[in-house]
Amino acid sequence: MTTTPPNIAAQFTDNAIKAWTAQAKSITAFFEKYSDADYLNPIAPGRNRPIYVLGHIIAINDSLLTLLGFGQKLFPELEAQFLTNPDDHTSTTPTLAELKLKWQTQLGVLAKHFTTLEPQDWLQPHTAVSAEDFAADMSRNKLSVLFSRTNHMGYHLGQLNLFPEKKRLKYNPFRTSVSLNFAF
Predict the structure, then answer these.
(1) Which residue ranges form the domains of the chain, and what is each CATH number?
(2) Region 87-91: what's the mean pLDDT?
(3) Which of 17, 72, 142, 180 is the most buried (most CB within 10 A)?
(4) Is residue 107 a contact partner of residue 25, using CB atoms and an 8 Å limit?
(5) First-to-last C-alpha distance (Å) of the chain
């Protein structure tokens, strides 16, 4: 019995897009948990606010359009506030509703473009690498950019999950109201 080996490039790209989508869904879900006003509070004293983190992720992911050869950025106006400057808790930011709309728009545009690339296209150089540099290091391809941006979203999702500080149940050995159920 002979079987055809699966297309490894297709498996990698499919898994990379699934990982990207999972991170994006988790970020979207986070911004549905609290009231809009809550997202204006810092994650921790002296740290970024969730609204800033969302703007930052949108601004970073916007460059995927140019890096992957899909076209121009959708929201270049976010770059100065969310990439080149730290979170200024006193500055006016776009509203959460505006950022959520930009986020959803961006996710839709990127998803559409992701599906247009064939697996072998993902292994081609991204637009910020020269032909000589790519020949010297073929890992500087479009797929590695997607992996990098997916990891970046994961980092910030971890940061967001610290907000608000969760109340933790402290261990009390004398607590009698705790019941343990074991199923065997």
Answers:
(1) 22-160 (1.20.120.450)
(2) 81
(3) 142
(4) no
(5) 43
Averaged over 60-83, what is the pLDDT?
97
User: Is residue 104 within 8 Å of residue 61, measured between CB atoms?
Assistant: no
Q: What are phi and psi of 125, to 5 degrees?
A: -65, 145
Of the candidates 65, 46, 58, 102, the one whose C-alpha atom is nearest the C-alpha of residue 82 is 58
CA torsion angle for 60, 64, 67, 73 (degrees, to 10)? Answer: -80
**Cα–Cα distance, 41 to 115 (Å, whole number):** 37
* Residue 182: how many other CB atoms lie within 10 Å: 4
The per-residue pLDDT for 172 is 43
Cβ-proximal residues to 53 (8 Å cutoff; 6+ apart), any chain? 43, 156, 159, 160
CA atoms within 13 A on the CB side of 93: 30
Tell me the two tokens of residue 173.
Answer: 């050995």
**pLDDT reported for residue 6:** 59
Q: Which residues are CB-contacts of 154 (< 8 A; sequence separation ≥ 6)?
A: 23
Quick one: average pLDDT of 84-97?
A: 87
